[in-house]
User: Fold these one by one.
Assistant:
Number 1:
Amino acid sequence: MSERMTSIHPRKDVEGDTFGMGYANHGRKTRTEMIEKFREYFENQRAQAELALSLTDDQLVVHTYLGPYAMRNREEVPE
């Protein structure tokens, strides 16, 4: 048995790159609730993007590892 979900995303006729832009939540929600959650989610995404873009190269670390889940043999990539 599947669990009820409610999702929100731009209509297909919206101009711009909206591919993958959306939000989903468990349970049956109202339109008002979902619009509020959608805006909160993307406001948080904006804050994270602004922080990420403000970081200098020295503030970033790169790792290589085996397996997308287990992440074995993790090593830092210096250059």
Note: Residues 31-54 form the longest helix (24 residues).
Number 2:
Amino acid sequence: MNLVPEDLPAPGEPIGEVGADTSGAAGLCKCGRGPHASDPDRCAAGHPRIGSAGPALLVGPNSRVFWQAQASVRDEIEQSLIRDAGHTRDDAPEALRLAVSSIAQAAVIQQSAFARLIESGGPLTNRGRQRRAFNVWVAASDRLDRGLRLVGLRRLPQPIDPMDAVRAAVAEANR
């Protein structure tokens, strides 16, 4: 069962407008300059052109690298949770697949918000107010906790071979 409409981009692709359209207005950049004399991926002022396959796609939140990296991290989390539940991706119940997908998304958002908190100097601003990234981290942590409770965290004891205990007792007695 596919809950995603057909016209949406594939998972891992940006949704919505990624940048301004530079194809109009005679190919002008956002700064108003025309194309670069020798580099088709830059404007005359040296800015990366939106929509080019050049350096603008190598870094930043709208880059293909970012979207592919977060997709692979989510996939790893989903695979390990499904494996921990004793299933493969193919034989896992649909409810489990949906739950682990939600858990993986929450984990990625939580980690991203935490990284933003570290970059910005902690959960509080200089004026003592909470940063928005802290609120995002708290909400994502709550979602992650709920999802993990839904899937269930079980610690199974290691199976003990009773003969090992007998062997150890005999070895101790023979000393």
Note: The helical segments are 64-84, 94-120, 132-151, 162-173.
Number 3:
Amino acid sequence: MYIIWPSLGSMLFVILFPFLGIPIFLRTKRVIYSKYENGFINTSKKTFSLKTFLFRSFNVFLLCIGFNAALIGSGIIDQSLLVNNVQLIYLQSHGIEVQYSTDGFLGFTSALLPIAVGLLSIGWKFKDAGIIHFKLPEENMNELFEIEPIHYRYEGYIKGFAGISAILYYIDAIIYYVFYHPNYENFLPDLIFLSIFGFLFIISTIPAHLIYQKIGNKHFRKHLKAYKPITRSEFEK
């Protein structure tokens, strides 16, 4: 649960989600942004760097915390499913809720880490494929126009949810321990390990990132028209 599923699941979903999610998102976007056209530009191909991996992995970690706050905190998922019986008895004997324990958080993270990788990989592929949308005025009309990479729009929804949920989760956890269980001896270790072990889980996504780099962009540009980038000299009056 902690090693095999996060690795294998991430490898599968990093392939599956972009192929399914990108067409669905583009079709849904037509309803909301009906006046926008889609296309792509040939961006300079950059080698996948350690900085890119760490940045994307950090967003995966935040999204996992967001899932924790939304699904476990709301009671949608039974917390007892995330830990074994020995761990559950220990937490119950101390009156600690599973969602605020290291065991519970790691159990939930290992279960949904592949889904977080899959959802975010849609935005990664939007960016790497250079897919854009734009709304341009008619000829000789002084109107505002917009040209935007689609990954900004997609990732705005995902990262907004992940960031806010992660902050609320940690605030809620601190309040929970400080005001309701101030004598719990593992208070500080649990809060620290929630972060450290969460980042260690990201290591299991390395194979998924390597596979992702092998996925080309041609399929995702199908039926989209290529456009040239706009330079500063063309934009300035």
Note: The chain has one domain: 4-27+52-235.
